[in-house]
Amino acid sequence: MIDLHYSATPNGQKIAIMLEEIGAPHRVIPYDIFEGDQLTEAFGRINPNHKLPAIVDQSPADGGEPVTVFESGAILQYLAEKGGRFLPASGAARAATLSWLTWQVAGLGPMGGQASHFLRYAPAGQDYAVARYTKEVQRLLTVLEKRLEKNAYVAGDDYTIADMAIWPGRASAFVMGMGLDEWPAMKDWFERIRERPAVARAMARADLAAPAKYIGRHQTLDEKQWSNMFGDANHAAVTKD
């Protein structure tokens, strides 16, 4: 059994999809990040960075004590190695998969997150920040489009954890008003993955669904929510562990 500490963000959805793909028994432990569920000392013992998702593998392959993994890229790699699927064992295919996985977690994900932040939450007058991050997301999506014009999947011919990492980020493009029609290769790739049975199951599960406050284009947070997400409570969590 794997415990998935989960919030219905693209990072959380990556892991939910992977667990469905490998058929790993798991239970979802939901967190409301706006209410600060992730800021507790108990969760800090699972992830000292107080961010979601994280997993606790109660039955690791070596038969030892439960294994905790945080950061979505690390979780995907751990599950791929445990399940023996979606990450080539060696050679150029493995290198390509890990390169594109890292590209997502170090580039597309953070840039999309920053663009979403300034569009959704920041006070008016953040024109430079909005332009900076949306243009960088457009640049990164151009990189992805060119890759998918020549390859069925981002790492090559086969579906891998790199695809799982990138696919849920469609939510960020939605926030920025970017339609898939302007990215035809990406659109074909997106639809092909959406039709995978495991992806369809994950997206249909009520316990994995994203509430409106996670996906609406413009959000107004109250003082407590802002503190939990971006302010004093968010910062204080790491000092009290």
Which keywords apply here?
241 residues; alpha+beta; Glutaredoxin; Glutathione S-transferase Yfyf (Class Pi), Chain A, domain 2; 4-stranded mixed beta sheet
Instruction: Examine the coordinates and then state which fold CATH places here, giving the name of the CATH topology of the largest domain.
Output: Glutathione S-transferase Yfyf (Class Pi), Chain A, domain 2
Main sheet makeup: 4 strands, mixed
Q: Can you tell me the residue ranges where pLDDT is under 50 for at least 5 consecutive residues? A: none
Structural class: alpha+beta
Architecture of the largest domain, CATH level 2? Up-down Bundle
CATH class category label of the largest domain:
Mainly Alpha
Strand element count = 4
Rounded mean pLDDT is 92
Radius of gyration: 18 Å
| Pattern of helices and strands | EHEHEEHHHHHHHHHH
- The number of distinct structural domains comes to 2
- Proportion of β residues? 5-15%
Q: What is the distance, rounded to the nearest whole angstrom, between the alpha carbons of the first and last residues?
A: 27 Å
Contiguous helical run count:
12
Shape: globular
Helical proportion, percent range: 55-70%
Widest β-sheet, arrangement of strands: 2-1-3-4
